[in-house]
């Protein structure tokens, strides 16, 4: 019974599926037409290229470059995949891996089949037969651009891990870019030499360094690096209303960290003014009112900071005035 | 001021400093009073174990110690891969006290080492701030560093870790550096080098010193402040410091071969050239040579830099190592060294953490730096550079808040002390010099009123003094309250012992970890191997005295990835890995019963990620997420998730805890858990602690008939009779649990 079943299955596959060699030939032909470009697929060719059996790796970029989708990562990655394809076909082994691009406009059926709601993704269909055969759980594996990076080098790194093909990405020398750089370098060196004394005078200005250091400290102590690394939204929204402050101790919005930075700066300014300006005032009454005003501003700004912190950390027991 | 008042002032200072020392020690004792004198967390357990080795076997045995209890089957050469400073410090303290006939247990020495060193840190900060301003600012700074939560977080009693002594060493090295620079004294330069050597032996953060001091020297050069004092101080420090740092086995030849140390070497060379040229110029005194010499300096500098680049590319000098490199390129670690990125203290710092750790000092920090710019002597330049670099590093990594904290304390003490000086001292006559001129220049017509020769500078009125001093006192008191509150509520938990409150408000101690480790110690063979995630490696070797596969010294990524794979694959796959590594017990941490969020299911994604990094064909992070990209443990969890060893061992018989009609609920993930029973066929549940936090499974032996254990289990299932009896026993157990 089992033997009959296997026979039946293999008969079926003979009827339905083309052999690997047939497909490799077909794909090689497509590659030969434009070796520097990934193959443009549609539903039919996609199904042909990805059906089993395969003795090659098939990488398919699922994308939507149409204007109506406004998918900027798709466009950014299109350049990179071209680079990967070109680098691979220049040096890599022939007929062992192919790169294709399936645009939503050409392959709506495929997108429906995989229930894809966001692009771009790269699907890798590994070989199911031949020397490079590799078993994975699903039919394909996914390269997640958001997590692993949109650069060609990142993708090549992933390809090497998942298919064993080492791709040396050689970025073409962009003469235009280098030319601009060269002109810029020459002109800036020229300006530097010409304005040498002014620049040195500018750089030895204490106020400049003071401003730079102080703003650097304030910015970095109010969570700037966190914003850089985690990339939070500028502002959140709560029940439809814009929210300045993110809930939770480990979280923050960009706007929020800027507000906190400003509060730090203000507290410091009031404090410094208490030292630098007030003692110089000769009129006793004026001095008294200046001291009172600055001290009030100082303590109120600080209370505001405590208030903001209490909002972040619900259990915080200390507040002042506000 | 008479001689007697000066002497009184000295005594007063000493008394205040001692009081600050006592304060900073006692505020770190919350955990000892609340729990007991116990070593905390993870890394301290390794330090404690090595200290025991040092005390029992002696120094040379310790240096040659090969630890076969960790990294089975690789083992670890401890002597050559550890910063021995803290162990030697504790060992020496123990030895001295025993010689003086104070028979103190080594564990107590270890527990109380960090609090005592915090008192020394306060003194070091006092000395350093005295160099910046004066003794009153110094006392303020000492008080601040004594209670600042940013430092307490790493130095409570029981947290026996490198940072506990390293911050003292950092501050005292900086103090001696400033002293050497001020006096041009090679004696103080030598002391700087000596404490730098101590720092190198104690903490990897010594790299901060060996880059900050050259940066300071370079800034002084750019400001045109080259002096023979700088030359003497820096040369003494660099030569002695580097040579002595190379004596630490773990550091070895790194000071000559890695990029982290090259800045110091470069500045050393630059100083020699400048000193040489200065000397020649003083002999020749010919102006026409100046431009020539400038060209010479520039070209030598460029040649040196080019040589450095060439040597780096040639492989003679190692480029920045991953850990340090990830401080500059913050995306680097996440992609290439997930092990570093996975540690929670390596995450970037959000602003509430800054404020939580420094409170009042944080908004006054910029003011202090402003005052530094106003005076801008050499030591102020140092504080400015320290502040700028320190804030960058603290922003990138939570744990580096620690290095920023002393600087913030010093700067804000500087600011507060300056303002207090003005508002406490009587007004004084000063010459009326520059400030009036600006207004005169802008309004030339109003020059008529003649300017008095002197003006009264200062606060003339009592109530305006009060108006400023009262708010400052209020915020200072609030700061002290804040520090006590933070220390008591956030930083005094030993994390191996947890506390909760009973309904009547009394304290209930949750001691699952020690319970489980002690069970292992009593119920397993001495050469059994334990598989667990690396976080618990040090604790298992320290408390259960058993061999582990991986531990907190994360030097071998592949081995950790193997454990990650064993945890994230199906039972059959990981059984093979376990058998290959002689694993007898599997230990997982599970917090769903109690709501303990630091458990293994929450860390699981990192195991997967690290496992995928090495075994991309067997582990795939994506298959642990549902189609909608969620990380779930309820009935919508992906099949891969449900079949993983981690999931199975965590939730095995979890549903039974809630009885036949209950709804099992995960209190950490806030998700209901399916009631379907989980079958384990490659291991048996050996032990589960009181609150289910630690679960230990014994790996089964190979099947007698050579079948896979899966096949053996499904064969066994057909014996209905046996199965039924097991079930009865199980429900009885569950009922017992419910009664409790």
Give a topology summary:
The complex is a heterodimer of chains A (322) and B (740).
Chain A: H1 2-16, H2 20-33, E1 39-41, H3 43-50, E2 57-63, H4 72-91, E3 97-103, H5 108-113, E4 121-125, E5 141-143, H6 145-148, H7 152-163, H8 175-194, H9 196-203, H10 206-221, H11 224-230, E6 236-238, E7 241-243, H12 254-276, H13 284-312
Parallel strand pairs in A: 1-3, 2-3
Antiparallel strand pairs in A: 2-4, 4-5, 6-7
Chain B: H1 3-26, H2 30-34, H3 43-57, H4 59-63, E1 66-67, E2 76-77, H5 85-99, H6 106-132, H7 135-147, H8 149-152, H9 162-183, H10 186-202, H11 206-222, H12 228-245, H13 254-257, H14 262-284, H15 289-314, H16 322-328, H17 332-336, H18 338-342, H19 351-358, H20 361-375, H21 378-396, H22 401-424, E3 428-431, H23 435-442, E4 454-457, H24 462-489, E5 498-501, E6 507-510, H25 512-523, E7 529-531, H26 537-544, E8 547-548, H27 557-568, H28 571-580, E9 583-589, H29 600-614, H30 639-643, H31 645-651, E10 665-666, E11 671-672, E12 683-688, E13 694-699, H32 709-717, H33 720-739
Parallel strand pairs in B: 7-8, 7-9
Antiparallel strand pairs in B: 1-2, 3-4, 5-6, 9-13, 10-11, 12-13
Helix pairs in contact in B: 1-6, 1-7, 3-5, 3-26, 5-6, 6-7, 6-9, 6-22, 7-22, 9-10, 9-12, 10-12, 11-14, 11-21, 12-14, 14-15, 20-21, 20-22, 21-22, 22-24, 25-26, 27-28, 27-29
